[in-house]
Amino acid sequence: MPVLSILGCKILQDELVWLLSNDPQVMQIVIVASGNISEFAEKLDGQDIHYKVLPFEKIPRVLERTDKDKLTVVVNLMELGLHAVPSELKSRVYQNIGEMTLFSDGILIFYGLCGNVLGNVEEDFCLEKDGCTVRILRDSERIVDDCIGATVGGGANYLKLLKTHSKEPAFFFTPMYASSWKEVISLNKYHPDPEKALKMAKMVNDSAGYSRVAKVSTGLNYVKDIDKKIEEFADLFGYTTFEITGSQEIFEKCYLSIKNEICTTVCSNLDFQ
Known about the structure:
By secondary structure, the chain is α/β, with parallel strands linked by helices. It has 12 helices and 9 strands. The chain has 2 domains: 3-145 and 248-266, Rossmann fold; 154-245, no CATH class.
């Protein structure tokens, strides 16, 4: 039974919903029970995708009883904001990988470098040492910088965008960023009073030169009222808005690559192309 596990940030849940919605070869989806899955589960429900939600400790036993010729995907979503403390992000990601290798044939890490702390994750969990293939989101040349880098087509294009807009720096908002920006930027860290927190956050953003918000059009519509949510953020901070194009190309390529890799190894008699 090939088991592909996906360990990722909650901010990339829409891309996961899209991948699972468009892969008829997935016969079973298991979601690790946590406080980060309610939106993800609702979006799967909206696509009529069946899944199980299980506590981590029960997953190995359930997987042992499933059809050994069918592809199972296990999804483990982590909370937003871990990138604010890179050492904590690395510690949590590595801990979860270590636990998931016990029942996975492959693990796809739905993160980028994220503060340059995950650049060695594939080497640190190499196949020879752990018996489980570990891959992270990459473009054609290297690991992507972060979730925005993955969405806009990889490092080269991301750098080009940053240079193009360097005179008027912008926040890049994917649909999930637009939906979760208060959690992403940890607004409450500035002050317990929401109004004062906004003022302090604006001071920090202004000092960094931010004056605009870029809507990254991914083509995914799982988050409702994207434009309204972006305008809300822009109005609060006094920013203008514009639009750039994103896609699922990198997510799809990385997903298909590791799926084919583990299915060729574990189930060489099946055609997972």
